[in-house]
Write a structure and sequence with these properties.
Largest sheet: 8 strands, mixed
Strand order of the largest sheet: 13-19-18-17-14-15-16-20
CATH class of the largest domain: Alpha Beta
Structural class: alpha/beta
CATH superfamily of the largest domain: NAD(P)-binding Rossmann-like Domain
Shape: elongated
Number of helices: 15
Length: about 400
């Protein structure tokens, strides 16, 4: 999908550029985004109706969606994704909020556990809606779940055959599967779809959940499953559970690489990643997981993240490693690659090798992704233990005093 400027649409629609910019600011042009000082609009966008015209009373040219209980991390990530898809977003929350993500949308403060509040919400909302997302990420009473069923049936009267309802549930609320119960009724009566996503992750303070990926799954259910209704998908949100020491349990290979991918995808120009890699004989294989790991490194560097990687191996292996595919890739990247002589460190500061172990990736000064020795069933673990991360960071800075440019070493 291409984009045109407000000036180009001015010529296309026959109205002034100033008028188009005003419509963009009012969220009346589907999919319009601001890039610096310039508004960009999807090239196939339909001209919005003039509210002064009588015809606008009878047609609906805008996609509008309501999110109930929007004031949560999933909701914050969903908003920009919905706007990118061209939706105008309304929301409700149970208390006042100053969250920046919610400033540009219409928020109604209601208690969704109260049926009278839900009735009031239906009366006050717009006449037409193309979507409804009902968030419920905490344990809910049976009475509240019954209220939700009533609300969905009533609100569906504001929707059409192209509309979609998505339920976002905590796994504890799966005993009443409304997506299955209401699917046929809503399909037969209106033609709309109702699907659900269940979040199967512990409700604890010492976990990290990938809310952005959950939001992306919600958008997929909303926009891509055009002829599917009554289904549910279950996700654990890629959660990481940390113990009292700030460590995850040892992670098996699949979970470990997925975790790395999650962290690396979040790196940007403000990020600093510092890595120590030991060149073991069985390391840097051509397996898909390792290849993907290298790609995520390169992508982060291309986004402007500051990446430094030290390769530790004996000087007498330089000739052997000149043809190493992995090192060739890193040498040609935006990553600052360095060589440290294993034997020199072993002689002068052997304690540094003990700290490095089998290698790790440090992110800023708050996260350490640690490799476990080869031969283990588990691949590694993540630590947010301040002492452990700081110790590794200081070790890395000390190793840099011995480091030489890898490109020069492997000439």
């Amino acid at each position: 999908m291409g984009y045109l400027t407000a000036k180009q649409f001015s010529e296309k629609w026959g109205i002034t550029e100033r008028r188009i910019i005003k419509l963009c600011k009012e969220d009346r042009i589907n999919g319009a985004i601001k890039n610096g000082m310039v508004w960009l609009i999807p090239e196939e966008t339909i001209k919005p109706s003039d509210k002064r015209s009588k015809i606008s009373q009878y047609i609906n040219t805008q996609k509008r969606i309501l999110i109930v209980n929007i004031n949560n991390p999933i909701g914050y990530h969903i908003i920009p994704l919905l706007k990118k898809e061209g939706y105008l977003v309304d929301g409700t929350c149970s208390e006042k909020t100053n969250n920046e993500s919610l400033e540009s949308i219409k928020i109604r403060q209601i208690n969704d556990q109260d049926k009278n509040e839900l009735k009031k919400l239906i009366e006050e909302t717009e006449k037409y809606y193309d979507g409804l997302i009902f968030m419920d990420t905490e344990k809910t009473s049976k009475k509240a779940l019954e209220n939700r069923e009533w609300f969905i049936k009533e609100f569906s009267q504001k929707m059409n055959c192209e509309s979609s309802i998505i339920l976002v549930n905590n796994y504890q609320n799966q005993e009443i599967k409304l997506e299955e119960k209401l699917a046929n009724e809503l399909k037969d009566r209106i033609g709309l779809r109702i699907n659900a996503i269940h979040i199967e992750a512990p409700i604890q303070s010492n976990i990290i959940i990938n809310y952005k990926e959950i939001a992306e799954d919600v958008i997929d259910l909303l926009t891509k499953f055009k002829n599917t209704t009554g289904i549910s998908i279950t996700t654990d949100g890629g959660y990481l559970l940390f113990d009292k020491k700030g460590r995850t349990k040892p992670l098996e290979t699949g979970k470990f690489y997925k975790t790395i991918h999650h962290y690396f995808k979040s790196l940007d120009k403000s990020s600093y990643m510092w890595c120590a890699s030991t060149m073991m004989e069985d390391e840097w294989t051509e397996e898909p997981a390792e290849m993907n790991f290298r790609v995520t490194n390169l992508e982060a560097a291309n986004r402007g993240a500051n990446l430094e990687r030290i390769f530790i191996f004996s000087r007498n292996k330089i000739k052997e490693f000149r043809e190493n595919k992995t090192l060739k890739i890193y040498k040609q990247s935006n990553i600052k690659t360095m060589f440290v002589d294993y034997d020199e460190i072993k002689t002068k500061e052997p304690e540094l090798l003990e700290i490095v172990g089998d290698g790790w990736d440090g992110i800023d000064k708050d996260t350490l992704i640690v490799d476990l020795p080869s031969g283990n069933k588990e691949r590694g673990y993540v630590s947010i233990n301040k002492h452990e991360v700081q110790r590794a960071y200081e070790c890395f800075q000390r190793l840099k005093t011995y480091a030489k440019d890898l490109k020069e070493i492997l000439k």
